[in-house]
Write a structure and sequence with these properties.
Strand content: 15-25%
Largest sheet: 7 strands, mixed
Order of helices and strands: EEEHEEHEEEEHEHEHEHEH
Helix content: 25-40%
Shape: elongated
Length: 280
């Protein structure tokens, strides 16, 4: 399985070659975005218009692929499975339009049903359970609690929804959760009359980036280590780290050799407090 896109670090692997400084970069992590083609009387589908500008972008090592799914009960799930197999994404964010809604809806559940009366673009309808042996619903595995504030910061109205409908949106939502083991979920967008196109594009980008990257509050811990007194230094590091955590930090950085101090009279004195490579 491809690595999750929820980390932002990249490791460069250096080796001695001619020329002397050559390096290899691991393949970028991959984020798959899907939306739908127009259907019915809808000449333009806002979901695809907002998603397609992101296709091919590279965000700090995260490669974005945007795919337009057909409005077809048969072809849309097949295309989604094909993209999962060939693109090997680390996460999937699916978008579709909900014409009567006025805000961006973060869908929490995919229901095990199809019940829309409207035919798809192939003229087919579908009713009943998607999977006779499946559960009644599956829960989104996207970090919705991270996406919601990102959308608000982008200036878009946002809400949570427990009903993804009974049409193709719910169908591919269910399919993704059944076929993919990484973060996956569905976001409904309204028409451009409710959210102007420029804001919609900004909001879709914000939602996608909230999946690709996690903002981690960090703090820099500054102490005055006592040379050679590891127990005392560790106690002070723990005190400072706990205080930083109480103030919201999830990652606390300390200076190099904070546990032992930087000044030693000799290599022998440094060896007395040096930790073995395995950290024990």
């Amino acid at each position: 399985m491809a690595p999750s896109p929820n980390r932002t670090s990249r490791k460069l692997l250096f080796r001695n070659t001619d020329p002397p400084y050559a390096f290899a970069v691991p393949p970028p992590r991959r984020l798959l975005l899907t939306a739908f083609e127009p259907f019915g009387d809808l000449a333009v589908n806002p979901s695809w218009e907002a998603v397609r500008p992101l296709d091919g972008e590279l965000w700090g090592g995260v490669l974005v692929r945007a795919v337009r799914l057909p409005v077809s009960y048969e072809r849309a799930p097949a295309r989604l499975r094909e993209e999962i197999e060939t693109f090997s994404p680390g996460a999937i964010v699916m978008f579709g339009v909900a014409q009567k809604r006025r805000a961006i809806s973060l869908e929490r559940f995919a229901a095990n049903r199809c019940d829309a009366a409207q035919a798809d673009n192939d003229g087919a309808t579908s009713a009943g359970k998607i999977d006779e042996r499946g559960p009644a619903r599956r829960e989104s595995t996207l970090p919705l609690a991270r996406i919601e504030p990102a959308l608000r910061r982008a200036g878009a109205p946002v809400e949570f929804s427990d009903d993804a409908g009974g049409y193709l949106c719910n169908r591919v939502f269910w399919e993704a959760l059944a076929a993919f083991r990484g973060p996956a979920g569905f976001v409904h967008v309204p028409m451009f009359e409710a959210i102007p196109r420029e804001l919609m594009e900004r909001a879709v980008r914000a939602a996608a980036r909230a999946v690709a990257f996690e903002e981690v509050p960090l703090a820099a811990g500054q102490i005055a280590p006592v040379p050679g007194d590891v127990p005392k230094n560790l106690a002070e590091i723990e005190r400072v780290a706990r205080r930083a955590g109480e103030n919201g930090a999830r990652l606390v950085l300390f200076p190099e050799l904070a546990t032992t101090g930087l000044a030693f009279a000799s290599a022998a004195s440094a060896r007395k407090v040096a930790a073995p490579a395995d950290g024990d």
